[in-house]
Amino acid sequence: MGMAQGPQSKKNLNVELNLLPVFDILSVCICFLLMTVVWIEIRQMETKQAIGSQSASETIKEASIWMSIDESNNVVMTMKPAKGVETKMMVPVKSGSIDFEKAKSVLTNAFSKNVRMTHILPSKNTKYDQVIRLMDIAKQVGIINIGLSPI
Length: 151
Fold this sequence. Notes:
Blueprint: H1 20-42, E1 64-69, E2 75-80, E3 87-91, E4 93-94, E5 97-98, H2 100-112, E6 117-121, H3 128-141, E7 145-148
Helix pairs in contact: 2-3
């Protein structure tokens, strides 16, 4: 007994695809893209590399302040003048976080002594928002060149 052959054994190839879910996903992706592009434009902080981008002959020894953050969020600020002796200042922890008011006063004092470059050396436990806030304070004070050391 053989199989019946003919038009009754073939499936109908005229199928209607439901494209509505595809359009829904596409519209969500486009909205997400538009919102994130605007957010990136608004929330950017322009920085330059403080050391390393120039050749050795172009490097000018200028005053800088190095902010190293230890494991318990104490900030040791080391002022390195172009000529003279380094000075260190400790900004202790205030309620589990960096004392940003004290850090701002130290950076303001450094800016008044013609310091235009800073380096931030975070530890592996330093939170990202604390580093960004230190960078923001340095920009507010007027320090132009901000360097960030990798962890």
